[in-house]
Amino acid sequence: MEISLIRHGKSMHLESNRINYKDFQKWVEKYDSSGVFEENAYPSVTLEKIGTANVLITSDLKRAIESASFLNQNKNVGVISDSLFREIELPTSPTELGLKLSPNSWTIMLRCLWLCGYSKRCEPLTSAKRRAKLASEQLVKYAEQYKSVVLVGHGFFNRLIAEELKKKNWEGKRKSSVKHWGCTTYSLLN
After folding, report:
1. Model-wide pTM > 0.85
2. Is residue 184 within 8 Å of 172, Cβ to Cβ?
């Protein structure tokens, strides 16, 4: 049995100018509602795992669903979309900071605050870890049924799922890939 975790493709929302926090909130909304770029070529490992998958799971966010569609064009394996596999949202800023940062810098700063326990208007770390445990259990059930499962999800949440799979004695890399279209596979030998 194997479970492969793939990060979605690169978002079509590319704006990277320095912006204030209020504009960053709008940037996140655009990022979530934008699709992904279709590539001329995808990583061979990713295509190999899609080719051997018996079921394809995605989060319910557009970038994961579109990514799965691009990868699944030639195989037409069944796809299940589920909010359980959504990326973890970022907290809102503790105050209206007078800063102008790139969207990437805002993301890093807010994710660091979140990892330190700050979770204003978003899922706390403890809840995200519980959800990752449930997501890993669901993926294991799919693997028991379908043998080869692929999840097209999100970088940060895929990492939490990978941690849970490792706790369940699934073998694979310590951390899942955070590269767009990157694939990390975990297997359980009988």
Report:
1. yes
2. yes
Residues 121, 95: Cα–Cα separation, whole Å: 13
Tokens 């379908």 belong to residue: 146
Query: Residue 40 corresponds to which amino acid?
Result: N
Q: Which residues contact 130 (CB under 8 A, 6 or more apart)?
A: none
End-to-end CA distance of the chain: 8
Residue 29 has, within 13 A of its CA and on its CB side, a CA count of 7
CA angle 39, 67, 106 (to 5 degrees): 95
- Cα torsion through 64, 182, 29, 129, rounded to 10: 90
For the stretch 12-26, pLDDT in tens is 998 889 999 889 999
Torsion angle, alpha carbons of 135, 5, 171, 159, to 10: -70
